[in-house]
Amino acid sequence: MAGWSAARIIPDQTGRVAVVTGANSGLGYVTARELARKGAHVVLGCRSEVRGREAGRRLGEEVPGADVELLRLDLGDLGSVREFAAAYRHERLDLLVNNAGVMALPYGTTADGFETQFGVNHLGHFALTGLLLPALLATPDARVVTVSSMAHLLANIDLRDLNSERRYRRWVAYARSKSANLLFVHELTRRLEASYAEVTAAAAHPGYAATNLQAAGPRASGSRFGERVVELGNRVLAQSAEGGALPVLYAATAPGVRPDSFTGPSFAAWRGTGTPAPSPRAPWTLDDRAGELLWAASERLTGVTYDSGF
Q1: Under DSSP, is residue 20 helix (H, G, I), strand (E, B) or coil?
Q2: Which three-class secondary structure state does DSSP give residue 273?
Q3: Would you tell me which of 34, 68, 195, 265 could form a disulfide with 207, CB atoms 3.0–4.6 Å apart?
Q4: Is 174 tagged catalytic?
């Protein structure tokens, strides 16, 4: 086989409902488009309604007859996360793709006072997953796919300073948020298995894919030089958003995806159009005790408590 092709290999998704966060651009847009191409009803979770409507229009042009709807979702505002969950009108949820994220921003806080990268990348998705859990549990063979990064290898979470209040280093904070993503998947898997729930939690990453994510940090810092470096890297070294989305789509739809797996590109976990493959993973993202402690802190910080019995 020449490689894993989203167009050829994704199973039929007719009758299935998917939520994709950050669906207006990059990996999220490609993921939503390909799920819709295979017949899924896709809910586009977008922070900007204007950009979300534009994405929906473009998606409809690329996939005539696509079955999509737009719901506003700002993962940096827990009020918005709750509004999204309340507006979700379907009794079932076959697939939740926790894709949206921010990278290496200058220090800032969310609407609820959390460090931005930890708040958006982890806490927002933790809350969203918990609020949508009843629909997931009501759907046989549902999946939750959380998008992490190989950058998680740069830093473990600091349970004593989850919001980087003692010292802020933008890339360390990003790496910690991506470690939190993987630790969340690990702990969610343990809890789902303990309750015999028919939901699979898995993680994926795009390798180095050219999206607007990389330029956001330099732009927010006012660094034109940084933006140019990112633009050059994206042009010379990165793969396309289509290539980066393949591991996410694989984790979301391929038969036999294992719980708590971490899927990435086939070539050195960096890029590749072959079948996505298991990626290296830091041991701290498989630490049961750390998973329990992060979970407890996340429930306390977000106010979203998962049903202990599922």
Answers
A1: strand
A2: coil
A3: 265
A4: yes
Phi, psi of 34 (to 5 degrees): -70, -35
Q: Domains in the chain, please, with CATH?
A: 12-209+243-299 (3.40.50.720)
Judge whether 276 and 264 are in contact, CB under 8 Å: yes
**Residue 49: count of CB within 10 angstroms of its CB:** 12
Q: Classify the C-alpha dihedral 46-79-175-279 as positive or negative.
A: negative
Query: What's phi and psi for 68, nearest 5 deg?
Result: -130, 155
Residue 174 CA to residue 279 CA, distance in Å, equals 19
Catalytic residue among 174, 196, 208, 250: 174
pLDDT in tens, 177-234: 999 999 999 999 999 999 999 999 999 999 775 555 544 444 454 545 444 544 444 4
